Every structure is written in structure tokens, then in C-alpha cells.
Amino acid sequence: MKTMQWSDAARTPREVAAAVESSGEVRLERRGDGVSFVLMREDRARQAQQGMETTARLLRNLLHHGGEELVTEALVDVFPWVNFLPEKDCIAFVREFMWTLEACSDLDVWTPFGRMIHEWQQTAAIHADPALAQELSRAVDSDLGPVPVPMTSEEAGAEEE
After folding, report:
1. Structural contact between residues 66 and 86, judged by C-beta atoms closer than 8 angstroms
2. CB–CB of 84/130 below 8 Å?
3. What is the pLDDT of residue 5?
4. By CB atoms within 10 Å of each CB, which of 18, 79, 108, 149 scores lowest?
């Protein structure tokens, strides 16, 4: 994927458009802490969506016809860290993976899918460290005090400054 600067979109929009036209997509990098943007042709985005929908349907049918065990084996191949999950968590991961994949595909909103993968990977990391798993599994002996009211992202950002 070709990478250009965010400012190129304003200074040389024809060059950016030509790059998108020739390669299908361009990453527009922003200065500072800003997350980069990806500019792509509509047909390419539609094809990506179709691919995700097809994958979701294929996995759903594999689960239906081949059973949970087949899907679990496939997911272990893709995500080796699943081996660290206890069996009940592995089953829960497979079910949540399938449900989230299908829901995200229907909505064309993929943030929850990425978040779900990240959360299960972190859970596996805890199980991979026996000392940490034991520490986090122990009963809490005392009241840990009041819980502060959650802050908005703007409040949290202002507090960091």
C-alpha cells in the first residue's frame, strides 16, 4: 500500500487520487499522534466487505456442519495462544468469535471484532503466566474502597496534561 502524507490530500489532491486509482488504496499518515487514514476505491471496499461476509458465512456453516471442534482446531491454527485458554474459556472464545464475526459482518463495523480478539488474547496471556493467573484468581480479602466515577475521554486527556 502506498503511503502519503495527510497534507498531500489538500496540496496535491490529483496526485493522491491517481495513487488511489492505480493501487486501489493509499495510507494517509498524519503528523503527531493522529491515526493514519486509508483512502480506497469504493469497489475495493465493497470487495473487502463481500470477502468478510463470505468468510463469516463459511465459518458459520463449518460450525453447523463440522461442529465446534473443527472450528476450534482452525482457530488454534490461526491464534496459537488459544492453547493457553482453559477448555471452558476456549469454548466461550469460539462461540464469541463466531457471534461477533457474524454481527460485525452484518453491521460492517469491525471495531468490536478487533476488541474481542485483543481481550481474549490478553486472557490467554494471563493463563500463560501461572503466577499472574493465581494472583488474579484469589479472593479479595478486604474492601478496596470506593470506585471513582468513570471519566470521559476528554477528562482523562486533560488529566494527563
Report:
1. no
2. no
3. 93
4. 149
Q: Let me know whether 57 and 120 are in one domain.
A: yes
Beta partners for residue 25, in sequence order: 40
Q: Which domain holds residue 132?
A: 48-136
CA dist 35 and 147 (Å) reads: 32
Residue 157 has pLDDT above 80, yes or no: no
Read off the pLDDT of residues 16-56 as tens digits, 9 standing for 90 and up.
999 999 999 999 999 887 899 999 999 999 998 889 888 88
- Residue 106 located in a structural domain: yes
User: H or E stretch including 15?
Assistant: helix 13-23
Count of domains observed in the chain: 2
Q: Which residues contact 81 (CB under 8 A, 6 or more apart)?
A: 121, 124, 125, 128
The answer to whether residue 94 is domain-embedded is: yes
Cell numbers found for residue 17: 487520487
Q: Are residues 129 and 105 in the same domain?
A: yes
pLDDT one-digit tens code per residue, 88-140: 999 999 999 989 988 888 888 889 999 999 999 999 999 999 999 888 888 88
In a domain, 93, yes or no: yes
Q: Specify the 3-state DSSP secondary structure of 34.
A: coil
Amino acid at 21: E
User: In which element (H, E) is residue 53 found?
Assistant: helix 42-66
